Sequence to fold (343 residues):
Amino acid sequence: MKPTCLKLSLFALAMSSSLFANTLYADTLKMSSWVPTTHFVHTQILEPWSKAVEKVTEGRVKVEILPKALGTPPQHWELARKGVADITWGNFTYEPDRFKSIWFAELPFAGSDAKAQSVALWKSYNQHLQADPAYAGIKLLSVGMFGAGIFNHGSKPLANLADLAGQKIRMGGPIQQAIIEGLGAVPVSAPATKAYEMLESKVLDGSLHTIESVVNFRLTEKLPYHTIIDKGLYGATFFLTMNEKKWKALSDADRAAIEGISGEAFASQWGEVFNQQNSSAEKTLRDAGHTFSTPDPELLSKIAEIRTKMLADWETAAKTAGIADPKALLNDFETDYQALAGK
Fold:
């Protein structure tokens, strides 16, 4: 063999060996997810992020989304903290007593632009929330919100307090429960996945959802009436998190690369997807002849009154949780939201 050919062969062998070694020794992180692989959170958010991790780390870190969740949705923070899964995502709403400092983002009028909400919440975490020990012992990669939660009803518009009186409304968590009770309706605690059968059997009159959930949970025929409230009746907060030991085991370069596509970048993408889903769902429902209402002044005033009381309760809880200045936290979130929503 000629010397030049020999050198080329050796170079090719070295390159292939290097690529093989990178693949062989890649860190494969296991992600537990509790939505079906057909759900848009999987296809438009988690899957693209997982592929981006492999790309930005040049194959040194891979994320495998497990075919089946390793626990129930409320268990996913602990699954990552304890190392049962390397990466999880979930809903802070499922553990309200643990994450009291984040309540402010789930109260009435927390926003309707999911992208602005999500990025503002990430900024709030960096500026204020990480002082709360509830977030310690784990790597919080990013956060997200879903836009405006609204009233949806099976047989009539809910535009005033009289409309709401005695109506059985599905909800989740103490914040939503307090809102419904304060408005004179009857809260029924149940997961969104149970809404269809409960509406079918008349156990429920209506249900709290975002617009996209009405379509994605196949509730279009069961919930033809919707009450749109500026900046939402309630919100929900989500996390993307990683086991701290696994995080620290990664190289500095890989951690930096992953942080570059997480944090604000992930929050922005999360919110953008939810905005698209909500917008598309609203068009679908309007085209199907659904009725959209807005609350009258008395109902809006009552919602504002409930928010004021809940904010006072939250401020006390947030201080107990280690937040030095809850009012500054709320002000920063609202200022950031307004600036981002205006873009």
